[in-house]
Each structure stands twice: as structure tokens, then as C-alpha cells.
Amino acid sequence: MTGSASPGAAWQNGLAAAQRGDHRSALLWLERAARIAPHDPRIALDLANMRVSVGEVEQLERAGVTFAQLAERYDLVSAWLGLVTVKRLLGEEREAAAALASLLSRNCVPGDESFPAIAAMIAKAGGFAGWCGMLASGSIHVAAPPRAKILVLLDGVETKRTKVADGFTVPAGRQLAIQTAAGAHLAGSPLDLAALRHIEGVASIVDHSLIGWASRPAAPEAAINLTLRDAAGRTKQITFGKPLPPDENAPFARRLSFALPGASLKGFDEPLRVIGPEGAELFGSPLHPAAEAAIKPVPAGFIGLPVKKMPAQARLAVVVPVYRGFETTMACLNALLAAVPAGTKIIVVDDAAPDRALASWLDELAGTGRITLCRHEENRGFPAAVNTGLALAAGCDVLLLNSDTLVPPGAIEALAEAAYADKSIGSATPFSNEATILNYPKREGKNAAPDLAGAAALQLMASEANGGKTVEIPTGVGFCMFMRHDCLKATGNFRTDLFAQGYGEENDWCFRARGIGYRHVAATGAYVAHLGGVSFRAAGRALNARNARTLNRLYPGYARLIDAHIKADPLAEARFKLDAARFAAARGGTSGGVLLISHNHGGGVARRIEAEMQAIRAAGKRPVLAFPAAPDDPKNTPFPWQTQITDRHLRDGKSDDYPNLRFTLPGEHHNLLALLRAERIEYAVLHHGLGQHGLIRNLAADLGVPQNIVLHDYSSFCPRVNLLTRASKDAPLRYCGEPNLAGCHKCIGIAGDETFEGLGPEGLINRSRQEFARARRIIAPSADAAARIGRHFGGVRPEVIAWEDDSAPVTLKPPGAGNRRVAVIGGIGPAKGYDILMDCARDAVRRGLGLEFIVAGASAEDSALMETGRIFVTGPYREGEATALIRSVAADLSFLPSIWPETWCFALSEAWAAGLYTIAFDLGAQAARIKATGRGALLPLGLPAPRINDMLLAWNPPQ
Known about the structure:
Oligomer: single chain
Number of strands: 39
Number of domains: 5
CATH topology of the largest domain: Spore Coat Polysaccharide Biosynthesis Protein SpsA, Chain A
Strand order of the largest sheet: 16-15-14-17-21-19-22-20
């Protein structure tokens, strides 16, 4: 198999193999593409379809999971149809019919001629009386028993009772329910008319021209009727150009572009509206070309003279614009009602929410007098909804709040305190899981939203950790922004002429306020949860990009100012304190702590630490892991890195549980010690110091506790870490033979120092001798590793504790006769035998051998391996996936080409778990384990590739 290392090339190779009918090869290629690009839903869809083609039960079940995820996220017809197919093949008829019903309720009837008959069969088998759906033309199709009377209800009101129910149309409405007069249900009912008719897209004014795109998600291939209408009612039909490339936020949408030059807009009065057949406007509409043209830029860095007078605190009004999300809005308002200070006015602006249940609930809530409800007759967008609320809150301080937030008790008071901390403060914004420059805990975002109890706990900790401290920020964030009444009066409302449905309008407001002397602050003692992304869907990203361009035209240098703020990170201290408070709170009832020290390179070290942390927890103690925090540019940032602390599992060598618990040494050494002392550390375990400052190795002594040392490699005496050297600068790596010090110095001169500490072999040995002398225990996973340490450090006898139990039974499959497929497991770099594998593949090609290799994992350079035509690389796997992956490639044998004396080798264990005998070189723990178990064969180190291949083709276990 040949091909590029890129996911796109693997994807195309998979599709080509599928066209040839080679389903197994197609599955391999598509699985590789999915591993390299795990978040590309298009690859996931093609992979799921291929799993269906393979037809095995396990593959069908995996396909079903993928189809369900894609259908739920994208409401995609092909995903729903795939789910229907999988459920039918698995004999789950009711689930198949339920998937069909979901498809029809929000998507137009597929144009396939066979669909009606198949749908009828599925619906009947699933217990439905028939099915119904909307055609792309807009008419309603009903398939029911021939003589059944049909009831048609539009928004709950009966509008039709007929026997001939096919081909009728319905006026505008939200929901169409269709059933038999006897009350039998039809698959697809109720039909979501808003979704079925929805036109999605965005419109912009660029260089006086009207440009944009539109799509109809429910019927992607259908024609789109889009109209330009001006203030006087004049109209112009919009014609479309070619489809645009797939968008990251709408990968399956068929987006058609349009462009109207400025000359064609002459004679049209502003505002210009771009509307679909139901009158709904595209994002970005209405448009105000004159407002765009009249923009007078103000440098982003400009700040007016400071406000001189502190105003009296006003009554608080909370303004909550509402559009979508019944459950999230209900949770938001219920939390808000429980958290607001007495006397607060809650103003809810219903921006023509399409959900009837949501509208009814808001009516009920308003009827109790607990909220003031204002309703727009048509959807006008977030900025307009805010302005409606601001008009009702005149003279008040205003808390602007998204309807997908959870405000815990105490947060509003903390925001008010921050807003009145200085006379020139115009707004205050809290920390949140999703709040752009106020994200917590990870400042780049993508933090999970806590529930209300979790938000309340974070609010309490934020208050205790940061109190009323404020930090100046360039702009507030509109998901939850406390706006002081004097600033509101001086600055004015949000601009609807430039920002349409939203994104960027609060930033514009904040920069206008800056221009007259107001500042904006982060209330570091406040926290509010934010689900994010409820109101906007596919076109939201395009609108965001459009409005970002507008902001940068209004305030030249805006993006640079925000980037500079992010780089400077003035909120680092506040996030650190909140992380420290969470860390302390998570201590719970543990009786003490155990400090583990390691690198952050993942691999077998991370796997071992995972197991050790679980054992420490099981003993009622708290594991505390110190590891190097990778900088933004790790390749160009020399060691040592900052030290990061966590008490969670080490995932692939990294952890994001407390991303702000970072310590720059030596300056913050005392802070690190203070945190560790609070954990009552009982002993430390030094696993690895790569990337760490030298002070980390002395933490046990600084804390006055004993230390264990766990040996994972040979960095205790070898600056190369793994005993590999080069005969010359460009020569391949080979085992050094563990020479004397002169040989070590020669090796480093040619191959370099991979500890990056510059101590040299003498310095490493001296330091390690002292550490070994002080250690309570020295642990090695194999007798081979222990013996090597003993040879270099006289008198040191490490305990041997195997990481796994090789006496546990496994069932191994003898390799077959003839051609063989050989699995090579793990991350294959130079030390793991990359060059050996390449030589073997080239020899197999040269001699025409019936031998192919499958790398179950990744390599130093996938493309070079695959270009040999004899190696396929699956792509990296996650923890726990290896055994299933190895089995799936149907290998005859495993080859472990590692050329260094490994201290354990988890890849060997994975091969045995997958049922494969393994051939390896006679070196290190890998050789000792194979000798002890008889689960493979050993080759002399340095054996040429032809002899290795001969062995791989001929070897069979002894009878």
C-alpha cells in the first residue's frame, strides 16, 4: 500500500478502494484518515458507511454510534439513513423507525425513487401507521392506510380532515402534526416547519457590494428562493453562483454564493433586507451600506480622559434576550431568580422565539410578576433585543445576560462590587468556562460547563481566592456583563446597523465607552457558567467573521490589542489563585499526599503513572503529579519549562485539570513548596526529570520526606538516555555497548545530549549516585534494567517490580504459511527501529517477498514508510484501543524492531494480548520477557534486513 501521510490522501485512497470493492483496504485507509483527523465529520461519515459495507456485527455497531452522533449534531439526512440501515441490519426495527421519524420531522423527503416504499416498510415494522414528510417543493406527502381518515393540525389547531391527504400545502407555522382519525401516529409527525423551510446563510456589504451565501439544510439540492427587499418594499431576486467549499462549521452544507455589485443596489432605500420565502432574514440582514461607508476609524488604543466622578449605585436590572433553547433558558432564569439581590428587575426579551413551549413558559413566568416580558413580533437579533431591554431599564445598572448561562448566588454582588471599585469603570465581566478572554480554567477555552452546583462552588472559591480584585481588560464579554448606568447613559445602546444579529456588538460598545474615559474590568471574584453557542448555528461563524472585520475597521489595531492582552495575560495570577483554591478543595478526606515527578512525553511512563495514581487513591491518599508544562512553542523553548501540578490522571503525558498551577523556577520555588506542604506529602516518587528545573529533583529533601526512584530508561548515567549512538553524524542509530567514559564523550560529540542539561556522563553519574544513596527505594521494571544500573553504580541493587504479569494466560495464534502480514506496534521512531523497518520493506520489494508490514500506531515519518509499498501506518491510537486495533489488521505475527535495551516494553504486551507471537532483537527487557515466556523468537542485534525478513516469513513456534 502506498500513499501520503496526510488525512486527505488516506481519505481519498479509502474511497478509491471502496469503488474497487476492496472493503478491507478501504476500511484501513478510512480508519487511518479518521485517526489522523479525528474531528472531521466527513471522514467519520464515509468510515461509518464502509463499516456497514463490511457488514460484521461489531462494525455495524460502531457505525451506528457514528451515525447517531453525526445525525444529532448535524441533522444530516445521510447520517439518519445510515442509522436506519444499521438498526434494520441489527434487527432493531423500532429503533430504525424512530430514526426514520427523526429524519422526516426536520428534513425534506429524499429524492430517491425507492424511498417511499422502503419508508413505508420501516414505519410499519416499527409500529407506525405510515409516514409523512415535506417534499422539497414545499408540499406535504402522507403515506397512510388507503381508507384512513387523516387529521392535520397546524400549531395544535385542526386544519384538515381528509382521505386524499397527499400533495397539500400549509401556510406559515411552526409545527404540523398529522395522524389518523383513530389516533395512530405517522413517522415524521410532528413536522418541524421552521426547520424544513429554513434558509441559512449570511449577507455582508464589502466594497459597496452585497455578497454572501445561503443554503437550505433540510433540502440541500433544492433551489433557494432569496429576495433583496428595501425599506420602500422594492424587491430584487437574488441569483446564485457556484457552491462554496465546505465550511468548518457546516461541513455538509451546500452553500451557494451570491454577489450584487454596488451599481445594482442604486435606487434601493436602506435598510436592505435579504429574506427567504417565509420572510426570515439571513444573518447579517438588515444591511446599512451608508453606515458601513460612514465608518470613521478610531485607533483601538485610544482612551478618553478618565471619568472624574463616582456615581451613586443605581437599581439593578437584568436583561436577558431569549430566542432558542427551552431547557437552557429555563435553567438560566430559574438560577437567576434564586441569585438576584432583592429589588432587582428582571427583563426578558423574547426575540420571536420559534419554540411554542418556551414562549408559553415565559408567559406563565411573566404572569407571576417575577419577570418583565417583552416580545418581538419578528426575530430582530441579539443587539436589537438588548436595546429593547435597555429601554425598559433606563436609569438602572444593567446586567446583560445570555439565556444559556447559570448565575450562582454571590456572582451578581461580586460583579456590582467590581463595577463600583473605581469611578472610571464602565463594565465588569466574570470568569466563565466559555468567555473568550475570561475563560477559566483553560484560557484558550473549550472548558466543560459546570452545572449550577458546580458554578456555585466555583463562585465561592473565586470570591475567597480573589475577593473584590479587578483586572483591567480591553473589552467586556457580552454573555454576562455588568454595565454601570452612567456609562450606559454616556455611551448609548448597541449598534444594530453594523452588527445585525450579533457578535462584536458588545466589543463596539466597550470601545465607544473607552473613547469617553471608561475602563472595563474582569471581576476575578465572580464566576458564571456559560453553555455557549445555543442561539447561533452554522451561519454564526460567518457572521462572527464578518463582524470581526467591521470591528477592525471601526478600531484599527483592535485584533492586535486583543492579542497583546492575551499574550500579556494579566489574569494569570487570578486564575492561579482560583486553581489553587480548587486544588485545595479537591483534597477531600485523604490522609496525606504522594508526590510524583515525571516528564510530559506520554508513552510507557505516563501509562505507569496512571496505574500508580490509581493505587495511591485506592490507599486513601492523594497523588500529586509535577510535570513540565509545555509552552506555546515547545520546539523553540529550551528546557527547563514551567512545572505544572495536577492530582488527576496523566492523559497522554498531559493534564488540563489545573492548567494554571504553573511555577517558574527558581523564582516561584517557595510557592511550589507551600502548595505541596499543604498536601501533607508523605513521600515522593521520581519517575523522570526531563524538561524539569533541577530544583524539582530536590523537592523530597526540601519537604523532608523520603523519595523513591523509578527507572524508565538510562538517563541516570547516559546523556543519550537510551544507550543509542551513531558512528558518524549521518549514520543510523545503534546500541552503544555501554563503553567507558571516553566512549561516552565521543558519543555525545557525535549524537548530542538528549537530557538537555549539559552535565555530561560524569555529572549525571555523580548526581545519580547521590540520589540513589538518599533514595528509600530504587525500582526497575525488569531484571535486565536492574542489572545494567548495578553495573554502572556499584552497590546499587534496584528492586524488580514488573509493570505487568507475564504469567497471566494468553492465547497466541501461530502464523500461517505463505505470505505474511506483520504488525509493528506503537510509536515507531529511530530508537524503536524505524530504519530497520524501512530496510526490511525495501528488501521485501527488491526480492518480491510475500511480506507486508502494518504499523499499528504512528511513526517518525509515515509517508516515507508507506511509499515503500509494503508498509501501512494506521495512525495513532488512544489508550485502551491498541488490542482491538492490532486484531483488526489481521496480522500473522508481530515484529518489535526496537534497537535499545528497553526497561519493559508495553508494545510487547499489546502484541500478546492481541494473540500474536513476537520476534524481537536479543536485547533488553523485551528479549528477557520473550525468553521467559516462549512467546516468540529473538534475532541477533545488527542482523541485516534480508535475514530478518527470512525469519519473519519462515518462523513458527516450536511444536
